[in-house]
């Protein structure tokens, strides 16, 4: 396995690493590793400002900013496998059920969209409309695609020893309620006529198998997207969003109360489906994700841990930001990758590698996303630039710039709410090396994601995962 980025950097810049001993860097402390890596890179790097000119952003929140960024990453999961599938189908082994052909179909929206729609169905018509509102538009499905690719990539890895004694998770078992239907029913009076309710609906089983992906892993991919969609419903209420995926946001279409309740319902449906996987550790992982999303949203309410009116820069500000970023973005990806490896009954080393891949990919993506908010114009992005500052958020480029520009402290403290704060903050960031430091940190996380799965056997699924780590650094919007 190749050396980690930190080790490579120390060899490249030895004179800047005198006081750094790898023995004192905790192997699990990736936030620390990333920050140290950035400092070393910058010690030998050109600090030329790579930013481009900006135009003042609009104060209206642009909900498409976060989701559109994943578009470039999502295309990798589809294109890498789809291209190979086409070659396989057009070649001498043109089989109707060729594994790559099936995977390419699964990575599209043809099967994910209806499966997720059935997963979130409600017997209450209005709730059903709200719950399915975001599933009706074609999202990028980045997270479930990563889960499916990880499922296939890990299917070739060593199995757990001793082998799992759990009963096999068939399509029938994951769609069957655990408790009696009479207990799960919403009807409390035994004399009342029974009617099917959301609690006891049997989920639609997968219609066709996918080589290298068992039914539980496929269902996990759907659960992952359901949790993500619930977070979109809640986020749009918090951020007063007006649009999502080219249509009016759910809170605008149905009102805040219905949007919040719709998000709650999606989390409940995901929890039911999760329980029916009948694997306590997987349930624990995804339940923790839901808690992490809420914790991250609370952390984002303030820019520093102490939330002072006129804070002074410390490295704790970066640590706080990276912890928040993990909770809001990387937790769902990392724990879903870990869960699908567990459901594939692979060994502990593979499970940990899957988790580290998802964690580092999620952090790298968000760092690039935050950087693009400064380095690309509104025309390039296809939406207003500077959305983070307009929302009062201090992200990585500004936090790095703050170290050399103490006057940013007052702006951070009042969340860029005073007249001229947004323009001044952007100007100071672009004049600093904050963009370069953010890019270096994103690169370190992307490299760590790739290194995490280096030991996986070669496969198209592994190549798709590796390609994601490369493309996340290249995207322009």
TrEMBL record:
Q: Name one GO molecular function term.
A: metal ion binding
Q: Where is this region: Disordered?
A: 157-176, 182-213
Q: Which UniProt keywords apply?
A: Isoprene biosynthesis, Magnesium, Metal-binding, Transferase
Which cofactors does this protein require? Mg(2+)
A GO BP annotation: mycotoxin biosynthetic process
* Record-level GO cellular component terms: transferase complex
Bias-annotated ranges (Low complexity): 188-199
Record organism: Cephalotrichum gorgonifer
Protein name (database record): Related to Probable hexaprenyl pyrophosphate synthase, mitochondrial
Identify the InterPro entries for this entry: Isoprenoid_synthase_dom_sf, Polyprenyl_synt, Polyprenyl_synt_CS
What domain of life?
Answer: Eukaryota
* Sequence similarity: Belongs to the FPP/GGPP synthase family.
């Amino acid at each position: 396995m190749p050396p980690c980025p930190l080790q490579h950097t120390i060899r490249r810049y030895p004179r800047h690493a005198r006081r750094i001993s790898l023995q004192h860097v905790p192997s699990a402390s990736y936030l620390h590793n990333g920050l140290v890596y950035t400092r070393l890179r910058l010690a030998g790097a050109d600090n030329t400002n790579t930013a481009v000119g900006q135009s003042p952003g609009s104060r209206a929140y642009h909900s498409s900013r976060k989701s559109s960024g994943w578009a470039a990453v999502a295309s990798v999961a589809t294109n890498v496998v789809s291209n190979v599938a086409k070659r396989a189908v057009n070649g001498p082994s043109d089989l109707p059920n060729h594994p790559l052909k099936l995977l390419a179909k699964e990575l599209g929206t043809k099967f994910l969209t209806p499966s997720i729609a059935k997963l979130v169905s409600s017997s209450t018509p209005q709730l059903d409309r709200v719950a399915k509102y975001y599933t009706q538009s074609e999202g990028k499905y980045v997270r479930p695609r990563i889960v499916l690719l990880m499922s296939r990539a890990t299917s070739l890895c060593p199995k757990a020893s001793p082998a799992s004694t759990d009963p096999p998770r068939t399509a029938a078992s994951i769609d069957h309620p655990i408790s009696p239907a009479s207990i799960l029913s919403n009807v409390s009076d035994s004399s009342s006529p029974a009617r099917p309710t959301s609690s006891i609906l049997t989920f639609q089983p997968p219609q066709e198998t996918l080589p290298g992906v068992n039914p539980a892993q496929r269902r996990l991919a759907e659960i992952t997207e359901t949790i993500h969609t619930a977070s979109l419903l809640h986020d749009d209420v918090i951020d007063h969003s007006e649009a999502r995926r080219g249509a009016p946001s759910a809170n605008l279409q149905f009102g805040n109360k219905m949007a919040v309740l719709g998000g709650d319902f999606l989390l409940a449906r995901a929890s039911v489906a999760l329980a029916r996987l009948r694997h306590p550790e997987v349930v624990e992982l995804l339940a923790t994700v839901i808690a992490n999303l809420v914790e991250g949203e609370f952390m984002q309410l303030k820019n520093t841990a102490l939330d002072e009116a006129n804070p002074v820069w410390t490295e704790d500000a970066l640590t706080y930001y990276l912890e928040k970023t993990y909770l809001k973005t990387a937790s769902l990806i990392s724990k879903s990758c870990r869960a699908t490896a567990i459901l594939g009954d692979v060994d502990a080393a593979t499970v940990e590698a899957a988790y580290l891949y998802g964690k580092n990919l999620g952090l790298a993506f968000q760092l690039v996303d935050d950087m693009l908010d400064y380095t690309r114009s509104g025309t390039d992005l296809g939406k207003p630039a500077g959305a983070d500052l307009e929302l009062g958020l201090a992200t990585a480029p500004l936090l790095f710039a703050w170290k050399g520009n103490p006057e940013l402290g007052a702006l951070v403290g009042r969340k860029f709410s005073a007249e001229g704060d947004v323009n001044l903050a952007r100007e100071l960031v672009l004049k600093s090396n904050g963009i370069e430091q953010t890019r270096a940190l994103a690169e370190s996380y992307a490299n760590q994601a790739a290194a995490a799965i280096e030991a996986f056997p070669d496969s198209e699924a592994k190549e798709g995962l590796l390609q994601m780590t490369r493309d996340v650094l290249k995207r322009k919007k």
